[in-house]
Amino acid sequence: MTHQLIQTSDGSTSLYLPDWNETYHSVHGALQETQHVFIKNGLHLFQNQAISILEIGFGTGLNALVTYQEHENLHLSVHYETVEAFPLSWEEARLMNFPEKLSAPSLVPIFEQMHCCPWEETVALSSSFSIKKRQQLFQTIGDVAAFDLIYFDAFGAQVQPELWEESIFQKMYMALKPKGVLVTYAAKGSVRRAMQACGFVVERLPGPPMKREMLRAQKS
User: pTM, whole model, 2 decimals?
Assistant: First the structure.
């Protein structure tokens, strides 16, 4: 599928898929969306802990990179597993300007390693952060009580509605440990109801720039 490099409103880059009329991140600010949805309202719930994170949609690697940068500030030890069915090549991902926008040139080799390290293997990026990339369809996820936090960052329901149905959120519920948390940029009522049908306790939170709300769900 064709990808086109674009710049979002906060100056960070993203990719546009003309076949779907869809982008990898919010056009109102890719970096701001990640920092608000997944870091502020997800990762910041955990401090001074060892945690496991499951990301639904590795994409450009933005969520993983910002999590890596922030985990030291929160005194976290992180095992990060990320699922992607159709990964980008490093030639595509290297066009992203994320380390520059994070004012962190030291993240350039980390970003490259995230994209170039082997799939299906756990790789230590530092003494407190390991990553495992899994190339699989979201529908085949079968983890049980393995994760403290899920970043649910699939493409939108307007292009992939099957990824926002009750059957997928049931898999997410099973994958979380008791009291585990899922965060997503989505706020549709149908998504909230699908989560609740699986047993999640769901709350609406203020969304990132130009988006009124987002959802956070906890395993009961």
Answer: 0.97
